[in-house]
# Entry
Amino acid sequence: MSARRVKAAIKKFNKFLITSHINPEGDAVGSQVAMAFLLRKLGKEAFMLDDSPVPGSLQFIKGTEEISKEMPHDFDYQAVIILDSPDLARIGRINEYIKKDAVIINIDHHVSNINFGKFNWVEPEFSSAGEMVYDLFKAFKVKITLDEAIALYAAIMTDTGSFRYSNTSSKTHRIAAELIDIGVEPYDMHSRIYETSSIQDINLLGESLQTMKLTEDGKIAWLWVKKEMLKKTKASLEGTEGIISFPRSIGGVEIAILFRETGTEDRVKVSFRSKGKVDVNKLAAEFKGGGHPTASGCTVFGKIEEVENKVLEKAKEMLS
Ligand SMILES: [Mn+2]
# Structure
């Protein structure tokens, strides 16, 4: 599919439900808000419904205050637009509101996307879902205003690791330049999103760094966030997001792994980053997860030590 085909699909409907994945980050939030703004400019109705709340650091983006956690009784949508989600499990609780015969428009850049929609626009070459929504603005020839530019820039900036990751293309920078010309202030965006850590989050980072380990060949680095660390530091799970960049930043490391204990059961959230030699989307898929070739994740049941063993074994296999 292409932006033009999605445009044709969108034209057929007037009332849209928009959603994205659980624990939304910049791309999920920014692409949803920009999509809602675009639909309204086209004279359509759009309602944003998410499983989990918008992180505090993204709440400055206009439109995020409209993202609801509950479905209004009187809103009967004709189509659902799902952004940045490789499968329906990723939208969590929102599945309860998706009718069996619902028309789903799937807009995503995950290589692991399983084409779950009636319309599937999946572009693994794109940096972000935000970049795809930008293309839709262009396909509809709709002028981008400052609020929309801020939402799109947040999506692109966060998913490219501030224009550092290998998914950053000349097109990504051209779009960013256009958004800056519209009025986006890069430093302001960066500082609002990344320079708002709490002292609790930094203390947690300190605890987590103490657990860092490296394989003998120096190619895999990993660390833990245990529930007791969260308790001790009073940090939020949200505050653990950037931790994986530390093992990744070690010279010679090819795979970085973060193990996070979550929930009440023995359940570990595992995040992977690769510097390009290993496809960590495939590694995550070994544990029923997915994502991108250089950034992915999965959830594994078991004690953190057991999960570490299992995951490391597979990671080593993939490296050899
Ligand atoms: Mn994304």
In short: The chain has two domains: 3-194, 200-319. The longest strand covers residues 255-262. The mean pLDDT is 95. Residues 271 and 297 are 4 Å apart (CA to CA).
